[in-house]
Amino acid sequence: MDEPKHRIRALHTETTVTVYQAYPPHIGLPAASTGRFPAAWQRDRMTWIKPSFLWMMYRCGWGVKEGQETVLAVEIAREGFEWALRHACLSHYERGLHPDRASWKRDLQRSPARVQWDPERDLQLQPLPYRSLQLGLTGDAARRYADEWTVAITDVTPLAQEIHTLVRAGDLSAAGRLLPAELPYPADEELLGPLLP
């Protein structure tokens, strides 16, 4: 089946969606052990969440990049995820979607969330011809994410390392079997329409 160019693919249940982030151990380990982001997690900064495990692996280099050694799977409430999408703006100006560049900039400044569509990655972290969601949260959205929407936080660094070991050994089929089961997220036109370039 052909993939649409833009789609949210995620591990999700009826009530939650799993997103990924990577942090230095002094943030990631306490978050995983308590299921809550610690006080050291800066709630006044923009934070980017990624429903795509492999895009996260591309971003953090399988958890070996400095400052990204602890890979977290963060299960959040679907109602929070969808609130962020409804209050999001595309991170770049798109002719035809926005009336003009000035109105897009105004929307961007007012929005507590922003959307980027980045090329999905394969197991060797090469870009694929379709894109997956990255969602930036700031202000009210970042605080809600950290303190209201989060249901569970799991350290998936060992999983990342195991998959990476199999990829390096050339056993892509075994590596693929360990990937989280990311399926199309049921986002309708009303939710995603204003966010599709």
Shape: globular
Major β-sheet strand ordering: 3-7-6-5
Number of strands: 9
- What fraction strand? 25-35%
End-to-end distance: 22 Å
The helix content, as a percent range, equals 25-40%
What would you report as the Rg, rounded to the nearest angstrom? 17 Å
**SS summary, helix count:** 8
Give the overall average pLDDT. Answer: 93
- Please write the string of helix (H) and strand (E) elements: EEHEHEHEHEEHEHHEH
The major beta sheet can be summarized as:
4 strands, mixed
Structural category is alpha+beta
* Contiguous uncertain segments of 5+ residues: none
Overview of the molecule:
With 197 residues, the chain is α+β, with helices and mostly antiparallel strands. Helix content is 35%, strand content 26%. The protein has eight helices and nine strands. It has helices at residues 25-34, 53-60, 78-86, 101-110, 140-149, 157-168, 172-177, 189-192, and strands spanning 9-10, 16-23, 47-49, 70-77, 88-90, 113-121, 127-137, 150-155, 183-184. The strands form three sheets. The chain has a four-stranded mixed sheet. A three-stranded antiparallel sheet has the order 2-4-8, with helices on both faces. It has a two-stranded antiparallel ribbon with strand order 1-9. It is globular, with a radius of gyration of 17 Å. The two termini are 22 Å apart. The model has no long low-confidence stretch (mean pLDDT 93).
